[in-house]
Design brief:
Elements: H1 12-24, E1 27-31, H2 33-39, E2 47-53, H3 56-66, E3 73-76, E4 81-86, E5 89-95, H4 115-120, E6 130-132, E7 141-142, H5 147-153, E8 155-156, H6 162-168, H7 171-183, E9 186-187, H8 189-198, H9 207-218, H10 223-233, H11 235-239, H12 241-244, E10 251-252, E11 255-256, H13 260-272, H14 278-286, H15 291-294, E12 296-298, E13 302-304, H16 308-322, H17 329-340, H18 343-349, H19 354-364, H20 368-377, H21 384-408, H22 419-426, H23 432-447, H24 454-467
Helix pairs in contact: 1-3, 6-8, 7-9, 7-10, 10-13, 13-14, 13-20, 14-17, 16-17, 18-21, 19-21, 20-21, 23-24
The structure holds cytidine-5'-triphosphate.
Cytidine-5'-triphosphate binds at residues 32-33, 47, 49, 122-123, 127-128, 169, 171-172, 175.
């Protein structure tokens, strides 16, 4: 006897779809992520894919006419798909296909397959699982490729020969790695080999779709799993060569440096334990990319990466542009964190002075906590003594940040004496002296010579003006 999964289909939308299909005389099924996530107990997804053995568009129209408020349908004729948004649910209808389709293709869609034809052309056996919406076997699972076994064993496997599945839509190579990371599954060896063999085909995929998968990997609990698979299959070198350039340990005259690629992945995993912020995770991924082009060996001091933070922050722009990542404040945020990524550690290695902390808060502004989070994640030393020392130092830096913040409010620094006040005090027209005085006031505050208060700043201004030979 077939086990019924009616429990997955209690939302009234499913009986409406079932009814509509019956009236049209077509069979239909829920397929893909909804079924997979239900069987994995990952909750029921709000994106629901419906496949009709017939016209998906006609079924969508029928369903819409039965729904309260007659929701609009978005029809994509070229792909033979239609979408309805209803409450918080997004329904996507498609006709069963014999041939594969993908969103980048302009080929017309052939809508004349059976359910099994359609399942054949899907990406993975775990995504080809379908639940019947037909009244005679409502809730029955249709699983021609043992997708359920793959789910239980945690295996990513393609329904057809992986070379065919991946060349139908090369983005699936990244999807395989993304699902393996999200679900903590294993990609079967044949499939992994096919990804390696077909890696060059990734170039026909749009940057937006690639980035979408990269972001999903970044948002996993342990992204290093995905990045090592991307690396192993050779995809990473094609997508993010700046990262793979960090791989390797060089040794000259017995002096080695650490492998900055594997170190970076460790930092990313570390930061994922403390933040869900996507762009902070990106900053962790990119914080050392300047180390490849700045690496030098000096006989006396060994390996150095002078200025890698600056070079790295410049590389962030190029990388974001190439991948069509946003070139807005999100990029600037990543650049800033990369640029400042060594500041707290330098600070913590020495005696933690108030003025150094004030300068850090001044330069990092609102992002100072994120910067600290990045630097704490950057501690990957396996030496427990060093580990403890760094952690303690950062704790001290954090305490000092709170302390100087309470006292001096540096984070959103506004000059306590305005340019106008300086002009009035010395009867000045706009001139360079005003800038000089303002800068001197800021410096005095950051150095802790005066508190960040109007009275003290005004007195300081009067003295500074006098020293410049200005008259009240
Ligand atoms: N699909 C496919 N090949 C692709 C993309 C999608 O075969 N390149 C099929 C799979 O059957 C997939 C379904 O279309 O399950 C829906 O795709 P999508 O909504 O992108 O993914 P989900 O599986 O729903 O998973 P997620 O929402 O996590 O991306």
């Amino acid at each position: 006897m077939q086990e019924s999964h009616e429990k997955a289909l209690t939302d009234p939308i499913f009986s409406i779809i079932s009814q509509a299909a019956e009236e049209l005389g077509v069979e239909c099924y829920v397929i893909g992520g909804f079924v997979r996530d239900y069987l994995l107990n990952r909750g029921t997804a709000k994106d629901i894919d419906i496949v009709a053995v017939g016209s998906g568009i006609a079924l969508a129209e029928k369903v819409a006419s039965k729904l309260e408020g007659n929701p609009a349908i978005s029809v994509f004729k070229n792909f033979g798909t239609a979408m309805i948004k209803h409450d918080d649910i997004e329904l996507e209808f498609v006709g069963a296909r014999k041939e594969s389709y993908h969103r980048d293709s302009r080929k017309p869609v052939v809508e004349n397959g059976t359910l099994q034809d359609d399942q054949n052309r899907r990406d993975f056996t775990i995504n080809a699982l379908a639940l019947s919406l037909n009244s005679h076997d409502f809730g029955n699972l249709l699983d021609p490729f043992d997708g359920i076994v793959a789910l239980e064993k945690g295996i990513i496997r393609t329904p057809l020969d992986p070379d065919i599945t991946y060349s139908d839509d090369p983005l699936r190579m990244m999807r395989a790695i993304r699902f393996a990371t999200q679900l903590n599954f294993v990609i079967e060896p044949k499939s992994l080999q096919a990804i390696t063999d077909n890696k060059a085909r990734i170039k026909i995929i749009s940057k937006e779709r690639i980035v979408d998968e990269l972001n999903k990997i970044m948002l996993c609990d342990v992204p290093s799993k995905g990045f090592s698979l991307l690396h192993k299959t050779g995809l990473l070198e094609l997508i993010l060569p700046e990262l793979t350039a960090l791989q390797g340990i060089e040794e000259i005259e017995g002096q080695k440096h650490k492998d900055n690629f594997w170190h970076t992945l460790e930092v990313v995993d570390n930061i994922c334990k403390t933040t869900d912020k996507l762009w902070l995770r990106w900053a962790a991924l990119l914080h050392d990319i300047g180390k490849a082009p700045t690496k030098r060996f000096h006989k006396k001091i060994g390996w150095t990466f002078h200025g890698h933070e600056f070079v790295g922050s410049k590389m962030v722009y190029k990388l974001f542009k190439r991948l069509r990542l946003p070139l807005n404040e999100k990029m600037k945020y990543v650049q800033k964190l990369v640029l400042m990524s060594s500041r707290p550690i330098v600070l913590a290695e020495e005696f933690v002075t108030d003025s150094a902390v004030r300068r850090l808060v001044f330069d990092a502004g609102e992002d100072v906590e994120d910067l600290m989070t990045l630097c704490e994640a950057d501690i990957t030393t396996k030496n427990p003594k060093k580990q403890r020392r760094y952690k303690n130092n950062f704790k001290l830096v954090r305490e000092k940040i709170t302390e100087v913040e309470e006292r001096d409010r540096i984070r959103n620094f506004q000059p306590p004496v305005s340019g106008e006040e300086i002009m009035k005090a010395f009867n000045l027209k706009p001139s360079k002296e005003i800038g000089i005085i303002k800068e001197a006031i800021k410096e005095a505050i950051l150095e802790g010579e005066i508190p960040n208060e109007h009275g003290a700043a005004r007195d300081f201004m009067l003295k500074k003006g006098a020293s410049l030979g200005l008259k009240k």
